[in-house]
Amino acid sequence: MSTFQAPKGTYDLLPPDSATYLAVREAIAGPLKNSGYGYIETPGFENVELFARGVGESTDIVTKEMYAFETKGGDRLALRPEGTASVLRAALEANLHKGGNLPVKLWYSGSYYRYERPQKGRYRHFSQVGAEAIGAEDPALDAELIILADQAYRSLGLRNFRILLNSLGDQECRPVYRAALQDFLRGLDLDDDTRRRVDINPLRVLDDKREYVQKQLTGAPMLRDYLCEACKAYHEQVRELLTAAGVAFEDDEKLVRGLDYYTRTTFEFVHDGLGSQSAVGGGGRYDGLSEMIGGPALPSVGWALGVDRTVLALEAEGIALDIPAATSVYAVPLGDEARRVLFGAVTELRRAGVATDFAYGGKGLKNAMKSANRSGARLALVAGERDLAEGVVQLKDLTSGEQTPVALDAVVDEVRRALG
Ligand code: AMP
């Protein structure tokens, strides 16, 4: 062990488990790539104001969890705690919305940072794959994103997840509801922090998990009763499209989510095998965000799915992904001349697209064969001086133990044939 350890709240992804993480990322990205979403990558840090304005001054993410710092040049930056604000910033900066081809559909994959109290499923560094559809107000777009996330989870074999759905209203009906909710909340017995939250973002009080708060919320006005006709109709269409697609969901009137920028459709994917950190992904519509960060009106919708928690969900359901062995062929040279010749064959095989590895470090036969078996390879190529004198190498099937000599210049063809 070295003197150093991974920082608190972080962990390293190591083989072979790391292959599952890659597979999860790919499984989530697959349906997006297949549906008109283009890949976007933005910096790991941004101007801290982008998040303060974009995510919301009153959110835990901004007030408590941001890794904010000042650079030597005096810039105030923060490690990104989430993806949406950065993606929208980048799209606006590059004028992607001006081509007349809306919505701009983008997907991303990367590391995010929040200074949280670490526990299982909650880390200070975590991975998300996300998608944003910028610049269109269309219930089919909201439905599309939910359907694609559902498809991704199902393609991984996950079954014990649920989709929670709600509408948060728009700039017309939400303020009326907000005022009614504030009236109600101000009559409750709440601590100072929560009372401040009532002033700044009362909807989030509904999301408070503490029992003494939840107990007092019975009888609170519900947003459903305040939604304007346009929001109701919009939400009904999203629900109908999901139902027609065979995607089951639960209406959850209390779902508000932790970020300030959501409007109308909001949703969360929860997995029932994860204990307290049950949200594997979530998202919603954020029609006002562009204007909040200085852009034009661009109604948009998006989601982010957590890779770490999706992997935990797979474990909870006992699902082992079918990940092909990284190596198909393992080459074992016996002696210096064999080393030179086999290394050449390895290079040739790799160029032909066959996953091949080599016994480095001058291992003896026994050790080298152990490594070959551990690599998961189906075939070994073994050669000693006598083989080379005859112009052959031995092709060994590591499952049956069967061994056949093959001509040196036919190695690629013979290996391909043996692998099927
Ligand atoms: P949020 O932006 O908070 O809605 O997060 C979207 C998804 O990212 C969540 O559903 C989680 O799967 C994942 N996520 C958020 N925060 C963390 C964290 N601290 N550790 C691990 N995963 C997280």
TrEMBL record:
InterPro entries: aa-tRNA-synth_II (IPR006195), aa-tRNA-synth_II/BPL/LPL (IPR045864), Anticodon-bd (IPR004154), Anticodon-bd_dom_sf (IPR036621), His-tRNA-ligase (IPR015807), HisRS-like_core (IPR041715), HisRS/HisZ (IPR004516), HisRS_anticodon (IPR033656). PROSITE patterns: AA_TRNA_LIGASE_II. Keywords: Aminoacyl-tRNA synthetase, ATP-binding, Cytoplasm, Ligase, Nucleotide-binding, Protein biosynthesis. One of its GO terms (cellular component) is cytoplasm. Residues 1-324 form the Aminoacyl-transfer RNA synthetases class-II family profile domain. L-histidine binds at residues 82-84, 114, 128, 132, 257, 261-262. It is found in: Cytoplasm. It holds the Pfam family HGTP_anticodon. Its EC number is 6.1.1.21. It comes from the Bacteria. The keyword Iron does not apply. Belongs to the class-II aminoacyl-tRNA synthetase family. PANTHER family: HISTIDINE--TRNA LIGASE, MITOCHONDRIAL-RELATED, HISTIDYL-TRNA SYNTHETASE. Homodimer. This is Histidine--tRNA ligase.
